[in-house]
Amino acid sequence: AARFAAAGVPVLDPADEAAWAHLPAADPRPAGLSPDHLAYVIYTSGSTGRPKGVTVPHRGVVSLLADVQRRAPIGGGDGCSLWTSTSFDVSVYEIFSALLAGGRLCIPQGEARLEAGAFLDWMEAREVGSAYLPPYFLPELRERVCRSPGRSRLHRLLVGVEPIAEPLLAEIRRSVPGLRIVNGYGPTETTICATLHDVPLAARGERVTPIGAPAANTRVFVLDGRMRPVPVGVVGELYVGGVGVARGYLDRPALTAERFVPDPLSGEPGARLYRTGDLGRWLPEGALAFAGRTDAQVKIRGFRVEPGEIEARLVEHAAVREAVVVAREDAPGDKRLVAYVVGDETGADLLRAHLAERLPEHMVPAAYVRLDAMPLTPSGKVDRRALPAPDADAFAVRAYEAPAGETEEAVAGIWAELLGVERVGRHDHFFQLGGNSLLAIRLVFRIRREMDVELAVGDVFEKPELSLLAQHLRDAQLAQFDPGQIQELLALARAADVG
Q1: What is the per-residue pLDDT across 429-440, written as a single tens digit (0 to 9) for each?
Q2: How far is CA 476 from CA 375, 455, 480, 489, in A?
């Protein structure tokens, strides 16, 4: 307190009644205060890296807290944790959901803020009933509540920030009688959470938890590049309207005009939509699914790829609790997708096979790195810059099997030269061995020149496995002959065998 006072910061000591003895006992609220007045400013770097102050009015905060209280009520005396930093907008939810309901706001210190086990011990000791938990604390919570069903005092849990497997949350909910779990989504510019999803007791398959439906007094749209609604199941950009939309960015009118746009779908004068930069799609049951960021889109081998969509499919695997996919260029000109997963031990080949059943070939990562925990920023988000480079064991390479037949051997020889590898097996994958679109073009020219067969670049992308590409070349060679010539060649071959 002395250091704050020396810096000119006002300090109120609850024990020093003289500090406010001269103030009136009546409601100090100034005349004319309305829900549209400013409640707080929180700075966020977002995707630009340059901090910007988001100006948030009272109305959005009150609306959201009332909605969550309706879904999962807390009462006077309930213990409510404050885990997040006050520079992170979830702290507004934690603080005021407790104080507006007459709850006890419990603030962890030291190790309890950093380590899942210590935090859960702290929660039990203080009989915390309402909490926000970051995704990387949830597996430890599941282990505890499954070992001792009914032990936890939790009855309201808010989760979010990163994609979370729905079976994980459903298992936690089943193990804690009376627990309500709400998965929230929303940029700071839409007042903490724009959508809410009540996690069911029974998970609907191995899939990522939906981000749900719009919160009270909120509208969410999935729009294309011309701001037109897209059909159910089609990915588009998320736009948010309603009481949660912030005023804009402090002293940044140009950026405010760029991100807070007029709402063409509302008849309300002056209505605006916040353009989130996030991607999503409507599910058949009416909930929203998160599908990544527009500015996280990367270009791999000529294809535009949404890492968020790959992450969502990875978390559907039973062994994966968290997943992050990034495009790495550890060697100049060699950009590859790398998946980082937290979960049970499983081979890269199994994860690759899981994705290959659900995604096109160009969206399947080349490498898979298992981590004990994701590196995090101070606000609990994944620090992508701290993710390690993959080693040789991270690549989904199948056991070596020698090429079979002249065509496979010829193609394997061309691959080895172009890719700079010692040997190529019949099940090896052109792009997993380091191939890219430029090398695919060179491959096509080499095959045309040396094997005298027509091949398109698209054929390499569609059949990147050596044995499949070789079979395609054999089929193309046979197609050069008419049926009569083929029968004549087969007869000659049979006669030679007899001879």
Answers
A1: 887 776 766 678
A2: 49, 8, 7, 16
